């Protein structure tokens, strides 16, 4: 608690037990005014109770912002343009929400004259890094308060005792050990911890909230047409939609078809392995459709370079470096490739699967006449392939001759040594 006195702090506040305890703890420990910020990221919860709880705690400045469109437009879609998958699997649903929350907290801090910001992330996870790299990247002189790294409320029972001693309501389902922790937004919902900590144990079916199991999905396939403009989805089955509305609509239809569940063991930035279960129905469909659109409209060199850059981009997002110059540089390179990623992709959703069945674009690089096994009218001279192959094979033939000779000489030397 050293350093200069804190006068006002902006807290990322959900209204749940943990952040309600944090709010009171900040008031008691730092003797400061607390400003709360609650973001509507499409988590599907009523946010007005958070306002009432903040008011009851004596908070005078309460911010509740609907940031769903900004979240999808300025964070989710740019990340998807990069085809970002962390460790080849994770669609980064939690990771991509943190920089937006951090940005809003800093904007509020500047507007209300706060000298500190605070979050509810624990000292073991990635979110503390993501929040704080965002804070410092946007306002280098901001003071950051991380209660989980400072207080002595190191167990659930201590947290509940503190809440009860300070008149903070404790929901009945919070009194026992919670089965897992959850984080939700419009892109995904995550489940981690406790009952999920053994990576050999299958997640319970009644845990999932955004998708049915593939076994329970309809026996009839669902077809969708997804329209893209310059890399971003803009319409579903011919109906133009905002980014947030399109993603919400995809979440519903994909979830109904058992799509978007992943169960992974991931490498946290802080050094440990962690098991997580995620539901990302709409995002899973979008990623598959986007790749199909790019297969038609991107040059081979563009596509393959993107495939090299995507893991690096995903790692930067996962580790919290959204506001870093290297992420911004990668974004510029990625966005440059998207100018002609425009057209329609038709997908079939069936029992947990997303199957591409059609794609078309005014900028298609696919030439049916050249690719055809029928007469192409002289567009492609098959005899040209002979010279192409010989040039490609030149170094292999050179290696073969050189190293075959070496092997023969080496064998001859060994034969002589046996006598």
UniProtKB/TrEMBL annotation:
<dbReference type="GO" id="GO:0000053">
    <property type="term" value="P:argininosuccinate metabolic process"/>
</dbReference>
<feature type="domain" description="Arginosuccinate synthase-like N-terminal">
    <location>
        <begin position="8"/>
        <end position="168"/>
    </location>
</feature>
<dbReference type="InterPro" id="IPR023434">
    <property type="entry name" value="Arginosuc_synth_type_1_subfam"/>
</dbReference>
<dbReference type="InterPro" id="IPR018223">
    <property type="entry name" value="Arginosuc_synth_CS"/>
</dbReference>
<comment type="pathway">
    <text>Amino-acid biosynthesis; L-arginine biosynthesis; L-arginine from L-ornithine and carbamoyl phosphate: step 2/3.</text>
</comment>
<dbReference type="InterPro" id="IPR014729">
    <property type="entry name" value="Rossmann-like_a/b/a_fold"/>
</dbReference>
<dbReference type="GO" id="GO:0004055">
    <property type="term" value="F:argininosuccinate synthase activity"/>
</dbReference>
<dbReference type="GO" id="GO:0005737">
    <property type="term" value="C:cytoplasm"/>
</dbReference>
<protein>
    <recommendedName>
        <fullName>argininosuccinate synthase</fullName>
        <ecNumber>6.3.4.5</ecNumber>
    </recommendedName>
</protein>
<dbReference type="InterPro" id="IPR048268">
    <property type="entry name" value="Arginosuc_syn_C"/>
</dbReference>
<keyword id="KW-0067">ATP-binding</keyword>
<dbReference type="Pfam" id="PF00764">
    <property type="entry name" value="Arginosuc_synth"/>
</dbReference>
<dbReference type="GO" id="GO:0000050">
    <property type="term" value="P:urea cycle"/>
</dbReference>
<keyword id="KW-0028">Amino-acid biosynthesis</keyword>
<keyword id="KW-0055">Arginine biosynthesis</keyword>
<dbReference type="Pfam" id="PF20979">
    <property type="entry name" value="Arginosuc_syn_C"/>
</dbReference>
<dbReference type="InterPro" id="IPR001518">
    <property type="entry name" value="Arginosuc_synth"/>
</dbReference>
<dbReference type="InterPro" id="IPR048267">
    <property type="entry name" value="Arginosuc_syn_N"/>
</dbReference>
<keyword id="KW-0547">Nucleotide-binding</keyword>
<dbReference type="GO" id="GO:0005524">
    <property type="term" value="F:ATP binding"/>
</dbReference>
<keyword id="KW-0436">Ligase</keyword>
<dbReference type="InterPro" id="IPR024074">
    <property type="entry name" value="AS_cat/multimer_dom_body"/>
</dbReference>
<comment type="subunit">
    <text>Homotetramer.</text>
</comment>
<feature type="domain" description="Arginosuccinate synthase C-terminal">
    <location>
        <begin position="180"/>
        <end position="397"/>
    </location>
</feature>
<dbReference type="GO" id="GO:0006526">
    <property type="term" value="P:L-arginine biosynthetic process"/>
</dbReference>
